[in-house]
Design brief:
Blueprint: E1 3-6, E2 12-15, E3 23-25, E4 32-34, H1 42-52, H2 109-131, H3 137-155
Antiparallel strand pairs: 1-2, 3-4
Helix pairs in contact: 2-3
């Protein structure tokens, strides 16, 4: 970028950056002129100021150190369980339907069908290996379909 400067007589000049610091004569008035150094860009000025600034140790009180996490809040104890209800005089307390009975697990028909499909397909596959020595892959398909039926039964999709 060329350097722009003026003579004392008002004549304006432009010179290449490489001519900075060189001397010349004004053709209008004959005065001796020195081509000034190019004006530094704002970034260059900022870097110069940073380079000239004294190194100062940072003040630890000025920096925002991460705050320590707050102490855990105590968890309140759960409220006491319900008090047993006492039946009024003359009435008997009725026990819950589940009380005294073991937990029952019921499996849908789809799960049972899948179990029998897996067992039957496995038996079919084993027998096909023993007789001809060549596995019957239809038996393996029965096992896979049985596993799918078990999965659908547990997920609650027995009709699909």
């Amino acid at each position: 970028m060329p350097i722009a400067f003026e003579c004392g007589c008002g004549k304006s000049f432009r010179a290449a950056d490489g001519l900075a610091g060189k001397r010349t004569k004004c053709p209008a008035c004959g005065a001796a002129l020195t081509v000034p150094a190019p004006q530094a860009a704002e970034e260059d000025e900022a870097f110069r100021l940073l380079a000239e600034a004294p190194d100062v140790a940072p003040d630890p009180t000025r920096w925002n150190a991460p705050a320590a996490p707050p102490p855990p809040t105590p968890v309140p104890s759960p409220p006491p369980g319900p008090r047993p209800v006492r039946a009024p005089k003359g009435l008997k307390a009725v026990k819950s339907a589940r009380e005294g009975r073991p937990l029952r697990i019921t499996l849908s028909p789809a799960v049972w069908g899948g179990v029998f499909g897996v067992a039957g397909g496995g038996l079919w596959f084993a027998l096909s290996l023993g007789g001809a020595g060549v596995p019957d892959f239809r038996a393996a398909a029965a096992v896979v379909l049985g596993l799918i039926a078990i999965g659908k039964g547990f997920l609650g999709h027995p009709e699909d």
